[in-house]
Amino acid sequence: MTRSPLTTPPPGAVVPAAHPEGPPPGTALGSHYGRCFGCGTDQPTGLHLKAVTPDGATVEAEFTVGEAHQGSPMLAHGGVLAAAMDEVIGMSVYLFRKPYVTGRLETDYVLPVPVGTTLHLRAWCNGITGRQAYLEAEGRIGAPDGPVAVRAAALFIEVGMGHFAKHGDLSAIATELQDYEVNP
Ligand SMILES: CCCCCCCCCCCC(=O)SCCNC(=O)CCNC(=O)[C@H](O)C(C)(C)COP(=O)(O)OP(=O)(O)OC[C@H]1O[C@@H](n2cnc3c(N)ncnc32)[C@H](O)[C@@H]1OP(=O)(O)O
């Protein structure tokens, strides 16, 4: 992965263990919000990521590129692929049971991804220090050990739930998402 210093964990950043109250290994991770473009089931043109955590600390997911996801004819749009990486990385950091948002997302596009391809995504944490979490993901074509098509590195910033109350609609999240403390 080609990455900038902004997404490289500094010395002293720690990779957390699975949270004791997090999902057990093998748990399917449902959608956090039905209208989410990444994982929502009520978003017709969304990515409909299907995710599982194999170990309570990382995420594996599948995303099948559809007609609605094209950039050039019958090939996935780069922004859509970045959205898939953002989503799977977001799912992985929320395993640590604190709300984070994307601060920076860097993407390497390695292979074109045709419509109809199922991308096998994997995301993991390289370290957390203070409010900053350093994460990484890859997307492989056709199988978990298929050729790498996309790689991403990200900096996520921890926020309080007040972030969503101030800037968005906390009640819409809170009604669907029971795992988080909703008081800012
Ligand atoms: C509910 C469950 C749902 C569960 C959801 C599961 C899946 C969701 C997946 C999708 C995730 C998204 O797309 S989230 C949506 C896209 N992202 C956003 O909308 C975020 C918009 N940006 C912001 O709101 C803000 O900029 C923040 C919160 C990121 C940071 O603002 P702040 O809180 O005031 O903090 P600030 O002091 O600026 O920054 C804190 C530290 O981080 C550093 N920092 C901040 N931003 C950056 C940056 N872009 N690049 C480098 N470094 C940065 C600062 O230098 C500082 O370092 P130092 O001085 O401490 O060293």
Quick description:
It catalyses: (9Z)-octadecenoyl-CoA + H2O = (9Z)-octadecenoate + CoA + H(+); decanoyl-CoA + H2O = decanoate + CoA + H(+); dodecanoyl-CoA + H2O = dodecanoate + CoA + H(+); tetradecanoyl-CoA + H2O = tetradecanoate + CoA + H(+). The protein is of the alpha+beta class and 184 residues long.
Please describe what this structure looks like.
It is built from three helices and seven strands; from the N terminus they run E-E-E-H-E-E-E-E-H-H. With 184 residues, it is of the alpha+beta class. It has a single domain (24-176), classed as Thiol Ester Dehydrase, Chain A, CATH 3.10.129. Strands 1-2-3-5-6-7-4 form a seven-stranded antiparallel β-sheet, with helices on one face. Residues 180-184 have low confidence and may be disordered. The site of dodecyl-COA has 22 residues, from helix 1, strand 4 and strand 7.
Which helices and strands appear, and what pairs or packs with what?
Layout: E1 27-29, E2 50-53, E3 59-64, H1 78-94, E4 100-109, E5 118-129, E6 132-141, E7 148-158, H2 162-167, H3 170-176
Antiparallel strand pairs: 1-2, 2-3, 3-5, 4-7, 5-6, 6-7
This protein binds dodecyl-COA.
Dodecyl-COA is lined by residues 6, 32, 38, 86-87, 90-91, 94, 99, 101-104, 130-132, 155, 157, 159, 173, 177, 180.
Membrane topology: Peripheral membrane protein
Subcellular location: Cell projection, Ruffle membrane; Cytoplasm; Membrane
Region (Disordered): 1-27
